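Researcher: Checking consistency across runs. Here is Methionine gamma-lyase again:
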Amino acid sequence: MAEIETPHGFVSSGKKRAGRDDLDGGDDFVVLKKSKMSPAMAWEDPAALFAAARHEFGEHGGVNMSIEASATFTVMEPDTMRRMFSGELGPDRDFFIYSRHFNPTVLNLGRQMAALEGTEAAYCTASGMSAISSVLLQLCSSGGHVVASRTLYGGTHALLTHFLPRACNITTTFVDIGDLEMVKNALVEGKTKVMYFESLSNPTLTVANIPELSRIAHDKGVMVVVDNTFAPVVISPARLGADVVVHSISKFISGGADIIAGAVCGPASVVNSMMDLHQGALMLLGPTMNAKVAFELSERIPHLALRMKEHCHRALVFATRMKKLGLKVMYPGLEEHPQHQLFKSMVNKDYGFGGLVCLDMETEERANRLMHHLQNFSQFGFMAVSLGYYETLMSCSGSSTSSEMNAEEKELAGISPGLVRMSIGYIGTLEQKWSQFEKALSRMQDSGVLYKN
């Protein structure tokens, strides 16, 4: 097996595994091969960067890469295993130990994610939360400090508020990420290790000033970690100054609402440290992605840019029409959005302003009634958490994905009890779906409970 030259691997050298073990060692396990990209393409269209990355072929020449389903890998020489465990030989030379450490198929997906986000390296995990928690545990030690946006996904907020202080003695100061003075004052030089925020916040769609926040953090020697789940392709945080970009791949990148997965994209030094046999959070905590899942996702990323354009196009059209109807709409593509110009200055050209729209119905009762009509009367969408599906998904954030936050925390984050988060899908025609929305709205008006701005 080892004497066959396979196309597997996500390596900087491009060399294949040899039958002999007299190769030079190296620890650049997950570096994207930059020579495969034109220097002039750096930080250009994410779809172009993705297309410029090396394409892996199947073992027998298939246009799709092979799935490496093995949990463990053989060696040809007895001493090779010792050299792999000592770090002399590794995935950079196509030497693999065990799929919790490195797997060729998962490495290939990481290469794709690195190309998409414009980072030096990436590695993929079993969930978005495992990517987030692993990054924070890698960058922060006991006694460490995080400065984070007060408007975050509920699970991330709970991790920072409850779990990390209790289990790891890592504390967090939550700030209004739009108040740069508050952010500066929260940073404790020598103690704060990470500034954490979402490029587009869940669920309020608040836009983070990534260049300014990164500058502030870097002036104090603080690493910037950005969750870009809401805006893949639309915005490139690493281009704007972020150090590490995390994703829940389960959402837009997957697109099928059938896979749970995450990714960590950033410098090779960070990603490699997370896979270290002795100190790596991903290696030792083990949130391992299955190779078959990695293959599935690698087949979906090539059409992500096309899907995002349609998600964003429909979101803008619907938000504009909802606004004209007098509804209280939050969408960064609207000129009335407080960070519209900021977002416009950061987005990648031609991809729009994101695929999520929020409607504030003021009360949970009104929100629930609207969603009931939209799903059960007009078939506009589904009442479900998550996002990025081809159908529109709707949830009342305060009582669902942000339920981990208490009433005061939700108020500070700007989460109204009646906030309806909509992930706008692209199934059917735009006019067909808009007609379904109006039909549900008409039913609301007839019942006398419709709230308008």
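Researcher: Does this match what you'd expect to see?
Model: One thing to look at in this run: The longest strand covers residues 192-198.
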